[in-house]
Amino acid sequence: MTDRIEVVSAAMIRRGGDGIARLLLGQRRMGGSYPGAWCTPGGKVEASESDLDALTRELREEVGLVVDPLRDLLDAVCVYAYDMRSMPTGKPAQVRCYTFAAPEAFKAQPLDGLIGVGWFSSVELRGLQLAPADHAHRDILRDLNRSV
Question: Is beta strand 5-15 parallel, antiparallel or unpaired with respect to 92-101?
């Protein structure tokens, strides 16, 4: 038995009508861990799930995005992965971040554990308080967002 926690963090990129790429982030509720911090939607991969199954579930639960993995996540790419310790539990965790284009008609809404959602350009990422898993790779998020 292993104590590894696998975390999937979705960096959803869309091309705005103004030609600026934006990244979807959710703002954590005040009573939970890292209150007020912004984070990419995602969470733990359950024992019976693949990364993309977990991503599909977490996107629905956190921001109301219903995706069909066989259609909407066909172009999903794991753009980075890194090991860290979970701040709340102290257990080892691996963060894997996938990127894909959000469906055109998608309107994000804050659901499970979130009080807000927003689409942020690479410039706007500078001033945000990010959750530790996202703060650790702020430069990667900026570069990824700039390159789309």
Answer: parallel
DSSP alpha helix (H) spans, 15-87: 51-63
Burial of 81 (0-12, 13-18, 19+ CB in 10 A): middle
Alpha-carbon distance of 138 to 17, in angstroms, equals 24
Torsion of CA 86, 140, 119, 92, to 10 degrees: -10
Burial string for 115-138 (b: 16+ CB within 10 Å, else e) reads: eebebbbbebbeebebbbbbeebe
CA distances to 2, 32, 51, 113, 117 from 36, in Å: 31, 9, 26, 11, 11
Q: Tell me the pTM.
A: 0.82
For residues 64 and 34, give the distance between their C-alpha atoms in angstroms, rounded to a whole number: 21
pLDDT in tens, 8-63: 666 666 655 666 777 889 999 998 888 999 998 888 888 888 888 988 899 999 99
